[in-house]
Specification:
434 residues; alpha/beta; Rossmann fold; CBS domain Like; 19% strand; globular; binds adenosine-5'-triphosphate
Length: 434
């Protein structure tokens, strides 16, 4: 945090290198089953293949997370999205064992999380993967500054040093001047900023956000999303962000894992999810998204003719959204060349751009279809069960089993002290919940 320039460079290189960026978290074949003798479920293929209702009827168990695999890459915002009860919170809590996984592997920076003893786990939650909760869990009798310094206090940092560090982070999240207020004297959005500052103060490698903004009104929510995007841009910090809100996922996510009934039904960039939904469920999920604001000219472009390659006239970068390209093409009254590091990689014109807006197949859709397995309903690589163009390293399960979303019986979901009552969220709360 103290060297933003280096951090920005790291973020840029992580973003630029895409699939090459090393994973921070690596999750493989993860299961969390609640209920009696839960571990027999992943171990027995006959039980593991049952849908939610059958599994409950036969075993009394709920499989909240079912055979999920993915990597979180350094410097990315990895969004876990899905309807209520799809398994988002359980999945993310498993990452630091706030909830004990039933089966599978979780690795952080090469270290096996499931093999960690209590001391190592505490260290993981205090220093390496801090959680920001929806219910901020601030300590009511402490000032903003002391709430933010709390995690540092737990770490054993001296008073002067932690207050100095806390003041720096308070300013960073836009609360300068409010250091001496108590939580009751703050708005909801400001309290959430304190929660964010407290997590940031411990300078964690990964920030885990559990629906942090869902209690906020829409304008403040947007503000907080901008704040997270800014922090990410400036610091390049790796973030895992849970939300049930598609707009939020599309705004913040470098990649999105879309969950249904405990499975990841598609994992990909916003553009991949909106432009090439893996199945009918995902298609229905994204059907109201304005495609031109999410899809880029990479999706819309057609090959350039030899003459176009060397022509002059308007140009756009490959990451330009279709709606921005429409403005360029309309203003110029001519097609635009797509330039990637000076090289012409394609052309967009009124026709190709309108096809995207209308939801018609584009040249890049056609290329996707040529690698899609027949019958998968989308560009899923049948062998690995992965989206064909998700950039690798990310396992998406094949289409979910079609059972109803088991979202109702959420009683005691996280079974942790982390959000309960006045218990402070963040490092200390994490510790209490084991
Ligand atoms: N402690 C528990 N005991 C039994 N079932 C549980 C427990 N915690 C969660 N579940 C069940 O696991 C499934 C996934 O729950 P989870 O809270 O992870 O979903 P979610 O996607 O985070 O939902 P929400 O958006 O409502 O928070 C649900 O069916 C839920 O009822």
């Amino acid at each position: 945090m103290s060297a933003p320039t280096a951090a920005v460079a790291a973020a840029d290189s992580a973003a630029a290198s895409g699939a090459e960026a090393p994973p921070v978290f690596s999750v493989d074949g993860l299961w969390k089953v609640f209920g009696p003798r839960a571990d027999r479920v992943p171990a027995d293929p006959a039980l593991a293949s049952l849908d939610a209702a059958e599994l409950r009827a036969r075993t009394g168990c709920t499989a909240a997370v079912r055979d999920v695999s993915f990597d979180v890459r350094k410097g990315e915002v990895f969004v876990v999205m899905g309807l209520s009860g799809s398994g988002k919170s359980t999945l993310v809590r498993c990452l630091t064992r706030l909830i004990e996984p039933t089966a599978g592997r979780i690795v952080i920076d090469g270290e096996d999380v499931r093999a960690m003893d209590k001391a190592r786990l505490r260290e993981l939650r205090r220093h390496r993967a801090a959680m920001v909760f929806q219910h901020f869990g601030l300590l009511p009798h402490r000032t903003v500054l002391d709430n933010v310094a709390y995690g540092l206090e737990i770490q054993g940092m001296g008073r002067a040093a932690r207050r100095e560090k806390a003041a720096e982070v308070v300013a960073k999240v836009g609360l300068a001047g409010m250091e001496h207020r108590r939580p009751a004297q703050l708005s909801g959005g400001q309290r959430q900023r304190v929660g964010l500052a407290r997590a940031l103060a411990v300078d964690p490698e990964v920030l885990l956000f559990d629906e942090p903004f869902s209690a906020l009104d829409p304008l403040i929510r947007r503000d907080m999303q901008d704040e997270v995007a800014r922090l990410h841009r400036e610091e390049g910090r790796t973030m895992v962000f849970i939300t049930h809100d598609l707009q939020e996922a599309l705004r913040l996510g470098d990649r999105i894992a879309l969950m249904r009934d405990g499975r990841v039904v598609q994992l990909g960039t916003p553009e991949e999810i909106v432009g090439a939904p893996a199945d009918d469920y995902v298609r229905a999920f994204v059907q109201d998204v304005p495609r031109e604001q999410v899809l880029t000219v990479r999706t819309a472009m057609r090959p350039a003719s030899p003459a176009e390659r060397t022509a002059t006239g308007p140009t756009v970068a490959p990451g330009t959204t279709v709606s921005e390209a429409i403005e360029t093409v309309a203003a110029a009254g001519a097609p635009a060349r797509v330039l990637d590091e000076g090289e012409c990689v394609g052309v967009v014109d009124a026709e190709t751009l309108l096809h995207v807006v209308a939801g018609h197949p584009t040249p890049s859709d056609a290329a996707d279809r040529s690698v899609a397995e027949p019958g998968t309903g989308g560009p899923v690589d049948g062998a690995a069960g992965r989206p064909a163009d998700s950039g690798g390293g990310a396992g998406a399960s094949t289409t979910a089993d079609g059972s109803a979303v088991a979202g109702s019986a959420k009683a005691g979901t996280s079974a942790s002290a982390d959000e309960a009552g006045e218990a402070p969220a963040g490092p200390a709360a994490s510790e209490e919940s084991v």
